[in-house]
Amino acid sequence: MSDKFEEKNVVYKSEYTDKIRRAVVAFANSDGGKIYVGVDDFGQVVGLSDVEDVRRRVVKLIQDGISPDVTPYVECAIERAEGKRVVAVEVSRGAGRPYWLNDAGLNPNGVLVRSDAASVPSTPREIARLIDETSGGDYETSRSIDQNLTFQEATEVFKRRNMRLDRQDLLELGLVDAWGTYTNLAYLLSDQCDPTIKVAIETDDSVRSREIVEPRGSLFAQLDGAIAALDRFNRKFVKTLDGREISAREYREFPAEALNEAIVNAIVCRDYSKPISTLIRLYADRVEILSYGALVDGIDAKDLPLGVSASRNPKLAGVFRRLRYIDSLGQGLAGIRKIYQGSGVEPKFEISDNFFRVTLFNAFERRLERVVVSEEAKPRFVPVVDAPATVASQTFVPELTERTNVVAIGTDKALTVIADNPTSGAVKFRRERRYRD
Length: 437
What we know:
Elements: E1 10-13, H1 20-29, E2 33-37, H2 51-65, E3 66-67, E4 74-81, E5 84-91, E6 100-101, E7 112-115, E8 118-121, H3 124-135, H4 152-160, H5 167-173, H6 184-189, E9 197-201, E10 211-213, H7 219-233, E11 236-241, E12 244-245, E13 251-252, H8 256-269, E14 278-282, E15 286-292, H9 314-322, H10 332-340, E16 348-351, E17 355-361, H11 363-367, E18 371-373, E19 379-381, E20 403-409, E21 413-419, E22 429-435
Parallel strand pairs: 1-2, 9-14
Antiparallel strand pairs: 2-5, 3-6, 4-5, 7-8, 9-10, 11-12, 11-13, 11-20, 14-15, 15-17, 16-17, 18-19, 20-21, 21-22
Helix pairs in contact: 7-8, 8-10
C-alpha cells in the first residue's frame, strides 16, 4: 500500500477515529469504497496494537451513528498487510439511500457523498435525487426530509376510533419504510406537517365579515380546522311562524356533508410535491375548493361523473378509509353530486393542467324560489330546477298565516318570506333581509 495515496474509493486512517463513519456514509451514498484503519494518509502501513478492539469499535460506530441501518452493506474484517494487522471496512452502495450522520440529520451536512478523494456535504438537490432513486419518485412513499416527527394529533384521532398507532401500525400503513425511516406520508400526518389549507371568507355582505383561517399541523388537524371554519360561516336556518319555531329541522346554506366530502377529497387527491396550499373560498352564493394536482394518469374528465375512483395518494386514502373519513367505495365527486340531487343546483368540477376546483353552490337559496300549495292548502318548499317528483318536502302547518320567517341561527339577520296570497294555489314569495329585534 505504500505506493498508494487516498483516492475516490479508498480512504486511509492511521488509527480509530469517529471520522470513519463519514467515509462510510459517503461510500454508501455513492458507489461504495474501502476504508483501511492502520494505514496513514500516504499509504504507509502502521498497523494497530489492538486490532480486535478497533474492529469492535468501528462496528459499533457504524451501528449507532448512521441512519438508516447501513450494516447490511458493510463488511468489517481484519487483514494483514506488510506483516501488520489492519481493519478493512468495505462499503457497498446502499439500497436505502440517502444515509446520514445521526448527529447531523437528513440534511446536506449529514448526507455526505464522495467527490474525488474527499467525503463532502451533499446539496438539497442531491438529497432529493437520492430519495427519488430509492423510492421511484412516488411522493407519499419517499423518505421524509424531516425525521424528527411527532404524532400527538394522529394518535388522538386513532384513539377516538379505538385504534392503535404503534410502530407496527406505522409500518403497515406506510408511515415507516423498510429501513425504519419516516416516509412523506408520515410527515403529512405528523404534527410537523407544513402543507396547509387556507379558508378565506370572501363574502362582503353585512352578515359575515372577511376572514382568513389557516389551520396548521397534521392533515387531521387541518381537516378539522377547515370544517370548523366553514361550519361557523355556513349559516343555519329554522322555520318559524309568527316568531315561533315550527320545525326541529335545520337548514344550511351549503350541505355540510357535501362540504366535508369535498374537503376530504381535496386532501386525499392533492399533489403534495409542491408547497402550494389548498385554498377554500366561501362566498355568499358558493364555496370554491381549489387544490393542486391535475387528474391521475389514466383518468379523464369525462370519467368523473361515472364515480370512477383513483387516488394520487393511495396510502393516504387508505389511512382515511381506515379511520372512516371516506368509505370503501371512495365515492368522492359522485357522492357530492348525489348529496345535491333535488336541491335545484348542481356542483361544478373544473380541471386544468395543474389544478382541480370544486364549486358547491348555495342550495338553501334555491329552496325558497318556488312554493307549491296542495289542495289542502299545505304549502311546501320544493326545489325549483329540474326537481325530481320524489324529492322529500316538508309541510309547514295546516294553515299558513300572513308571515313566515326563516330565521338565521347565530346571526343578527333574518331571512323573511312573505306570502302575498296564502290561500291561492300558487303562493308567491319575496325575500328580504331584516334585523331582528
